[in-house]
Specification:
The complex is a heterodimer of chains A (about 350) and B (about 260).
Chain A: H1 26-35, H2 42-80, E1 90-91, E2 96-97, H3 100-131, H4 134-149, H5 152-179, H6 194-218, H7 222-230, H8 235-244, H9 248-264, H10 267-272, H11 290-297, H12 304-340
Antiparallel strand pairs in A: 1-2
Helix pairs in contact in A: 2-12, 3-6, 3-9, 3-11, 4-6, 5-6, 6-9, 7-8, 9-12, 11-12
Chain B: E1 8-19, E2 22-33, E3 37-41, H1 48-55, E4 65-73, E5 76-77, H2 85-91, E6 92-95, H3 107-117, H4 123-136, H5 140-143, H6 156-169, E7 174-178, H7 186-199, E8 204-208, H8 212-218, E9 221-226, E10 229-235, H9 236-241, H10 246-252
Parallel strand pairs in B: 3-8, 3-9, 6-7, 7-8
Antiparallel strand pairs in B: 1-2, 1-4, 4-5, 9-10
Helix pairs in contact in B: 3-4, 3-6, 4-6
The chains are: A mainly alpha (about 350), B alpha/beta (about 260).
The complex binds adenosine-5'-diphosphate and magnesium ion (MG).
């Protein structure tokens, strides 16, 4: 219940409700926090009530989703216990469920995406903010934001029709020939799989990382940059000591947000992951992620225990993305504060 | 080290500075004598900061800003086509109105940051220079036991002296200071004024100040700016007692500004 004690009056760039909530007796809680506001006119009071209600409902919703997920996954939790998290058989026919393969698939694809998108996203932000002429920066920045507006299913289609065939026929055979002795790059070349998913996820999270990093770079005051310029720093050195170094925690926050998005991304990944809940070392092999297994199997799950297992996967995914996003916000927030100090 | 005779260190001729189409410095001829302190005074917005930021080619870093005319550092034209602004800034250091230590670095790292930029890595040299620069900046005694703490843990006045030490570490013949004490308390201010009088043995100083008592206390020469023009330039003692220009007289006697 970390969020419920999230500290008051702090400013976060992205909305986390900013009131202090202490859940005790619900009635006193509502009286105290939603209705009591001494010395105000009715209109103000009413508006404050609405604002608080809105903030409160977000938290309530979050809590309800959590409660529902726990409730729905109870049969699986009872049957498999903690072993659900570390056993690797996912077999709907025999009704044996271990989530390790899908957790593994999620982590590998997401970190692969982060590994590719991190440097590119930060590089784009540096370029747009520090190097590009103003007009180029505006146009390029706009195009990159547009990348974020492309529906995920369109990325998936592109993955199936363009990326996967290219990987299967050109890139992966070449990699297997040259680096195939490393298990990470061993054959065969499927096209679809973890590598294709990682690439698509990278494309999808580049805008997240670059736009947040760019905003962070913008908060660096001119006098900070001038400190390095006046000491005889070259353009690159100024970027390194006044921009990158000062934004470290903010950049980590942006990377975490990108990671959070990659972990939960469903549609595009489901289309190119290859749907095989198995742990295989090669990046080129098909796999399954937490999100894709839910999307793939929920509609067809007939047994209660299968449904419950999928719900528990959802619960794990919810927990992980929640923690990652929470950490990201804290890092970005701390960055904002140190700049204003 | 520079001689103690009165050779010219810095000289501008017809220096103009623009922000876009807006002319902020309107053709200034200005001389700085070696090992002197030259104060620049004038009402706010008259182009003092813009002027001294032209002297180390910092002005051109502002988008849309440019400078015209000539600035000579001894026998080099710092606006020459083949002159690298980075090299200019290693010879003409600058301290700003707001102390701007690098926030992610320790006190020691801050002091030697400029040396590292110049490619110097030798530890013993960095340590000696750090101690000497901090001593010159009258900060050594206060920080010698916590060199490896974050620079941001220092008070505002200490941070400003750290910035002075950081600049002195690269041993520039000229030091520009843009209202270095205007954000500080009186005690910190007097510490910085004292250190200015100490370090002028080693370095030629140009200091912008809006505090006329400060100009009178620390400077040998004073320049009075108004609306982007240099109205009067003279020895400080003459400027404050027998100003030649009516506008200077009105300003130094507090009639406007
Ligand atoms: N970044 C800027 N962009 C446009 N105009 C500026 C900028 N900085 C200063 N100016 C203008 O240049 C003139 C001189 O400013 P400045 O040199 O800062 O004065 P001073 O330091 O004497 O107070 C002022 O009219 C100011 O409005
Ligand atoms: Mg100024």
């Amino acid at each position: 219940m970390n969020l419920l004690q999230y500290s008051p009056r702090t400013h976060t760039p992205i909305a986390i409700p900013q009131t202090t909530w202490r859940i005790g007796n619900l009635a006193t809680f509502i009286r105290k926090h939603l209705l009591q506001s001494p010395g105000m006119r009715f209109g103000d009071k009413f508006f404050l009530f609405l604002a608080r209600l809105a903030g409160f409902s977000v938290i309530l919703l979050l809590a309800l989703i959590l409660v529902y997920l726990v409730y729905a996954s109870l049969p699986a939790i009872q049957k498999f216990g903690v072993s659900f998290l570390y056993t690797s058989t996912w077999d709907p026919v025999r009704e044996v469920f271990g989530a390790l393969p899908v957790i593994y698939g999620t982590l590998v694809t997401s970190f692969l995406a982060l590994f590719i998108a991190g440097p590119i996203g930060v590089g784009i932000a540096l370029f747009l903010n520090e190097l590009a002429p103003k007009r180029v920066a505006i146009v390029a920045g706009f195009l990159i934001e547009m990348l974020a507006a492309i529906p995920s299913v369109v990325f998936g289609l592109w993955g199936i029709f363009v990326l996967a065939p290219f990987l299967r026929e050109s890139f992966q055979p070449w990699m297997i020939d040259t680096l195939g002795f490393i298990p990470l790059f061993e054959g065969p070349a499927y096209g679809v799989g973890k590598f294709a998913s990682g690439l698509i996820l990278a494309l999808m999270i580049i805008p997240t990382i670059s736009s947040i990093t760019k905003e962070i770079f913008k908060t660096i005051p001119a006098h900070q940059r001038e400190a390095a310029i006046a000491l005889g720093g070259t353009r690159w050195e100024v970027m390194k000591i006044s921009v990158l170094k000062a934004s470290r925690s903010g950049i980590f926050g942006a990377l975490f947000l990108g990671l959070g998005r990659a972990l939960g991304e469903t549609m595009a990944v489901t289309m190119v992951i290859g749907n095989r809940a198995q742990i295989m070392p090669s990046l080129f092999s098909p796999a399954q992620t937490m999100a894709s297994v839910i999307a793939n199997e929920y509609a067809e799950a007939t047994s209660d225990i299968h449904m419950a297992a999928l719900a528990e996967v959802g619960l794990v995914l919810f927990g992980v993305t929640f923690l990652i996003n929470f950490a990201a916000r804290i890092l970005i927030h701390r960055m904002g504060r140190s700049q204003n100090a | 080290m520079v001689d103690h005779n009165s050779e010219l260190v810095l000289e501008t001729k017809g220096l103009k500075a623009y922000f876009g189409d807006n002319l902020a410095v309107r053709g200034v001829d200005f001389k700085v004598h070696s090992n002197s302190v030259t104060a620049i005074i004038g009402p706010s917005g008259c182009g003092k900061s813009t002027f001294i930021r032209c002297l180390n080619r910092l002005h051109e870093e502002v988008p849309g800003a440019r400078a015209e005319g000539s600035v000579r550092l001894k026998d080099q034209d710092i606006y020459a086509k083949d002159m690298d602004p980075v090299m200019v800034r290693r010879q003409i250091g600058m301290v700003f109105q707001k102390a701007n230590p690098f926030p992610g670095m320790t006190i020691f790292e801050n002091v030697v940051a400029g040396l590292k930029l110049a490619g110097i890595r030798k530890k013993s040299f960095l340590e000696e220079t750090a101690e000497r620069s901090l001593t010159h900046a009258a900060l050594w005694d206060e920080v010698k036991n916590k060199l490896h703490q974050p620079a941001t843990s220092l008070s505002g006045g200490q941070q400003q002296r750290l910035c002075i030490a950081r600049t002195l570490a690269i041993d520039p013949p000229v030091l520009l200071m843009d209202e270095p004490t205007s954000a500080l308390d009186p005690i910190s201010t007097s510490k910085i004024e004292e250190l200015i009088l100490q370090i002028k043995k080693h370095v030629t100083i140009v200091i912008v100040t809006h505090n006329m008592q400060q100009a009178a206390r620390v400077s040998d020469y004073t320049a009075f700016f108004l609306l982007g023009e240099l109205v009067e330039f003279d020895e400080t003692s003459k400027m404050f007692t027998v100003p030649k220009d009516k506008r200077t007289e009105q300003y130094v006697t507090g009639k406007f500004g």
